[in-house]
Amino acid sequence: MRGPPSTQLHLRTPPEPGKKAAARTYIIYFLTGNPGLVEYYRTFLTHLYGVLSHDTASNRDVEFQVYGRSLSGFEMNSKEIKTMKWRKAPPYGLQDQIRHAEDELTDLVEEVKEQGAKDVRVILVGHSVGSYIALEVIRRLRAHGMAGEDFETRIVGAIGLFPTIVDIARSESGMKVSPFLKNSNFAVFAALLVNFLTFLLPVSMLATLIARFSGFPKDAAHTTASFVKSPHGIQQALHMARDEMFQIDTDIWDEDVWGAAASEPATKHPHSRPILRFLFARKDHWVADATRDALISTRGRFSYGDVEEVEGMGENWKPVMEIDEREGWPHGFCIQHGVPVAERVARWVREIVAQDMSKR
């Protein structure tokens, strides 16, 4: 019998007595999409960790840890929710999730250092709205650094997968759901209706029905059934989606976020800007083609496969934004395409680490 989905995944090699600690530890900190259950990404995250760990098996200069947690309010039981820490009960809005992610990240970095890691650096990986959260965490932490408040949490890179970072309401799905989400009570009513319809169904039976009608693999179907039966899941997902529709509109970040690894424009921050990478689907029902193309035109430099702008030419400090023209990966890649996307992300992580290792 399957247990409830995990709320947190932390993949790392336990310290071995007498073994020299790595010179530098990179935490791959993952931010989920909505619904924000990290269990959907177990295959993706474990494969990513396996690939990266294989790369460093004989290299003690670098150690990787992979960490992900469910977004707040998506926990499987009320006891797991940090109500006291967050000073409020679910549902949590988009701004709550950003604050919670920043708080959890800084706590994690401190914890890893207390366990003996010497030089800890972070690469954020966000899926869908998780990419928006990642950019906001970068902005806030760099603002704290400029104010002299936080130099400990050093983010050296960020990867956005099928990112919804501007104009989500103009997407195909956004236009369909926005009229319903305008009603502030919709999330409550929808949650009550779903709870009523599924009240007598055990998770195992509900998972079987979901697998049959959606084509989901067993693990994803079980996670979905557990999400439906969780204390706040449906309301939390819709409450957050309402915020996404009305808050994720214009580009709110300046060159200190977008100017990845740039010498120009200059930054006054003590840490280099994070190196950014983005992967878009060729067709994405949550990202309009026009929105994606405009973002690439104004903020990024285009990449097609392995073809990128030549180093030193043009604005090569801008983030690479790649459109998946070959594989056909969907927005919800984590359901059936976690392994190949993890391998793409591992390649980008290697590139970010290689650039970062050349710095002090």
UniProtKB/TrEMBL annotation:
Gene3D superfamilies: alpha/beta hydrolase. The keyword Hydrolase applies. Belongs to the AB hydrolase superfamily. LDAH family. Keywords: Hydrolase, Lipid droplet, Membrane, Transmembrane, Transmembrane helix. This is Uncharacterized protein. InterPro entries: AB_hydrolase_fold, LDAH. The chain crosses the membrane at residues 186-211. It comes from the Eukaryota. One of its GO terms (molecular function) is lipase activity. It is found in: Lipid droplet. Signal peptide: none annotated. PANTHER family: LIPASE, LIPID DROPLET-ASSOCIATED HYDROLASE. GO terms for biological process: lipid storage. One of its GO terms (cellular component) is lipid droplet.
